[in-house]
Specification:
The structure is a single chain. The chain folds into two domains: 148 residues, no CATH class; 164 residues. By secondary structure, it is mainly alpha-helical. It is built from 13 helices and no strands.
């Protein structure tokens, strides 16, 4: 009888392992939107509890909470998009007017580059440098790159919309059935009630700390970029500070997507000193805020080592992309909590 029970248990474990593997294959394409929905559900859980207490109906409360979160994202993005489009149009009109004065865009760009090269030529021999041919080759390469980049942006936008729909659809069910799901998971796990609460609390604290870290980086980079634009006399420093805060979410490129093109525009316009200052300020101060502020905020709120958080952020981005900014520290926090519970369990058995 014991052998039969052992064989049955082994067989069931194998079946469960196979089933979990197929479930993983099914869920893997939707990992990012599901994790985003989980993160939003945890962050907005206190707000949802208040809404639920007033409406009393679970489905209605979950629907209102989901709509509230949706508007919390859409309103700032749409408003910022309108302002940015207006400012971009004004900037294009200004550059177009200046280029028209010199006979068009090509002479305007050539004139700006010649001023830069004339200064560089004082220190470096550029007699064999073909400016016109080089500019034409650069423009051809840039046009090809922009074409492929535009197609990639369109493809990514479609994928982003699909992921957003999945995320908010999942968020509705997390709001409506999150408490019950938590209880079911607690029953299935072979852990005590205290250990389950510690596990969930560690994950929740890590996610909330990541959100605070993202906000802190956005605010710090936006303020620093706005200061740089204001000191250099560039138009709309507050607006471009807000745009920088938004682009701070983008991995690898980040705030450089704002101050980089601004430095190029300054250089083309002949303001190469301002361009160099902005380039140094952006690369040396604005971008480095991400490496300082985010690990510090996350380590303080989640009680994690700053260096460990730094590598968790880098590894998370490399493994999972943008969502890795949250997955990395959560995985680190989860691992440390589990290791601590394992250590306590081993000590309890040794004492017994």
């Amino acid at each position: 009888m014991e052998r039969k029970q052992a064989a049955t248990a082994i067989f069931l474990v194998v079946l469960v392992t196979i089933a979990l593997y197929f479930c993983f294959l099914i869920i893997r394409p939707f990992f990012s939107p599901i994790f985003l929905a989980l993160m939003l559900a945890i962050v907005f859980h206190p707000v949802h509890i208040r809404i639920q207490a007033r409406l009393r109906n679970r489905s209605t409360g979950a629907l209102f909470s989901t709509i509230l979160v949706l508007f919390a994202f859409l309103v700032p993005v749409i408003g910022l998009g309108i302002i940015v489009s207006r400012e971009t149009s004004n900037l294009y009109r200004l550059l177009n007017e200046r280029s028209t004065e010199q006979g068009g865009w090509n002479p305007y760009v050539m004139h700006g580059l010649q001023r830069v090269l004339s200064w560089v030529g004082r220190y470096i021999d550029l007699s064999n440098f073909d400016l016109r041919g080089s500019v034409l080759r650069w423009l051809e390469q840039i046009s090809r790159y922009l074409f492929s980049w535009g197609a990639q942006i369109f493809s990514n936008f479609i994928a982003f919309v699909a992921d957003a729909v999945i995320a908010f659809f999942t968020l509705f069910f997390f709001f409506r059935e999150g408490s019950e799901a938590k209880e079911h998971v607690a029953v299935v796990l072979p852990l005590s009630r205290v250990q389950v609460e510690r596990l969930f609390t560690g994950i929740s604290n890590s996610i909330v700390a990541n959100v605070y870290g993202v906000l802190a980086v956005g605010v710090s980079q936006g303020i620093l970029a706005g200061i740089g634009f204001w000191v250099l006399g560039l138009p709309s420093p507050v607006l471009w500070g807000m745009v920088t805060a938004l682009f701070s979410l983008v991995p690898i490129i980040g705030s450089a997507a704002v101050w980089g093109p601004a430095a190029i525009v300054l250089a083309v316009g002949g303001h190469w000193v301002k361009a160099l200052i902005l380039l140094g300020w952006g690369a040396g101060v604005v971008s480095q805020a991400d490496n300082v502020v985010r690990p510090y905020v996350i380590s303080e709120r989640a009680n994690l080592n700053t260096l460990a958080v730094f590598f968790a952020l880098l590894g998370g981005v490399k493994a999972f992309g943008l969502i890795g900014l949250f997955v990395g520290p959560v995985a680190l926090s989860f691992t440390l909590v589990v290791l601590e519970m394992l250590r306590e369990t081993i000590l309890d058995h040794s004492d017994a």
